[in-house]
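tool_call predict_complex ligand=uracil
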Amino acid sequence: MLRDGPMIDVLRITLPAEDDFEAWRDAARGLAEAGVPASAVVWQVEGGDADLFGGDVAPELNPGPGPGPSFAVPRGFVDLAKSAICHSEPERFALLYALLLKLKGNKRALEDRADPLVDRIEKLAKEVRRDVHKMHAFVRFREVAEEGGTRFVAWFEPDHHIVRHTAGFFVRRFTTMRWSILTPEVCIHWDGVSLTESPGATRADAPNGDPVEETWKTYYASIFNPARVKIKAMTKEMPKKYWKNMPETALVAGLIAGAQAREAVMIEASAAMPKAQASAGDNVQLSWDALRDEAAGCTRCELHRCATQTVFGEGPLDAKIIFVGEQPGDQEDLAGRPFIGPAGQLFDAALEKAGIDRSTTYVTNAVKHFKFVLRGKQRIHARPDIAEIDACRWWQEQERGLIRPAVTVALGATAARSLTGKTLTITKAREAPLVLADGGECWVTVHPSYLLRIPDEQRRREERALFVRDLMRIRERVVGLA
Ligand code: URA
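tool_result ok
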């Protein structure tokens, strides 16, 4: 019996699967509406260990899709919960339920970063996102002949319950191939039309060594730039546990060992090259070209349907600074280049005042397609939503991964969200640099469009001066790092 709250036994909620957000949401909604305190619920997963203290679900509280919620939760909570639910931490369902109850009482509870519960759940979600990132990056397919053609099969061991969560990514990326991803918990299979599942497998079920492996090795060796070897960052980004399943890692030791010699050769060769050619490693250039071409056909979200074209980043690939804006505007969409409209002009002027030569920097956007609403014939800027930002994040990460700038600058909240995965308050965030998940340094400042919109002249002047101050700090930092 409980000391506070309704006089009921502890309720045991059994979810059908470890990653079943919908089942958790339906159950949690029913419980929250019935006023059941978090301490009165025990969460478990079908087939999981039975809980010694669990009672039965009282029939009147039996969770299920009820008539709909009588209270709304912020979209940010749904996104957070969808990630955190995939964590391997058994307590996650209970933690999320406790947070849901908090939100029921206070819609803004999520904004309280000092709250240990919010902090804990943010951390879980972050770890899941990182695991997802690793899976996107480190799954390696081997080619297997099967009746009617070829199947590409990969073995992967995620830390969390993310396989279903990542399936959409692989479907989009390898739509025309037949593939299977085998993992200890669950396997997913794509036949070009539908996605199916089968129970978990073992490493022995996955093939080893084939022509795809050779292709990967060649590709990896060709993009490996010895001048950019950062062994610590590399092992952080590509933890050793993944190495055994990745053909290219067999090359790593040799590549690192040869890196110094190759770097010396490159330096010598680049000294003999015309400056424009020597400004970026040829391999980085080739990879960037391929990336930009791939982005030109991006359909990761719906924004490509109405925009004229993908507006990819531009600038030297050995830039020390990457600026990340929000999304292309009307003029950028037509011209296919970032920051050339009114916001771009203000940006250029501020850069000049701060002593930064834009042509030495790389400028890109968090979202690569223009989002707008039509008002008459005018296309009016519309803010990208979180799903669109998240869908587009991959490109920004690839750009940064190739360029490896000393400093990345988020211009405004959308860029900050794309880079950090968090919703930040610019006034606070602009005061000190942040460390990104890949170890990169990130500075946050306002978006130039914000400065265009300030109606009061005095305030506009002050805010512009602050923007220039931020840019100056960034310039000094880059000089210091060099
Ligand atoms: N605003 C942005 O964020 N990016 C652009 O490219 C143009 C305007």
